[in-house]
Write a structure and sequence with these properties.
single chain, 11 strands, 0% helix, globular
């Protein structure tokens, strides 16, 4: 079992930055792919970024490439999502997710992740 707790959301203006954190606990997760998804009101949950815990290899959605950076800190058992140059369309609840069965080459499907955090709200005003 893996437990995920997100933090770091908030209300910012367009162009600002935020860093989300996902504290990870439970069984050994060195073989996991960790991901961030987001869900805006009335829309489906959308893949944002993923990182393979063992080697730090990453994968990004086109909509955030160049603006967002996913990383993990082995010592702190934490996954981060650094979000720069935020846009109003980035407004959503952001979720951290974990999976042993997902490939870092194709990490986009939400159904592949059995473990989820409770989410943290990010609101970007124009």
């Amino acid at each position: 079992q893996v437990q995920l707790v997100e933090s770091g959301g908030g209300l910012v203006q367009a162009g600002d930055s935020l860093r989300l954190s996902c504290a990870v606990s439970g069984r050994s997760f060195s073989r996991y792919v960790m991901a961030w998804f987001r869900q805006a009101p009335g829309k489906e949950r959308e893949f944002v970024a993923a990182v393979r815990w063992s080697d730090g290899r990453t994968y990004y959605a086109d909509s955030v490439k160049g603006r967002f950076t996913i990383s993990r800190d082995n010592a702190k058992n934490t996954v981060f999502l650094q979000m720069n140059n935020l846009k109003p369309e980035d407004t959503a609840v952001y979720y951290c997710a974990a999976s042993q069965g997902v490939s870092i080459a194709q990490p986009m499907g939400a159904r592949g992740y059995p473990y989820w955090g409770q989410g943290t709200q990010v609101t970007v005003s124009s």
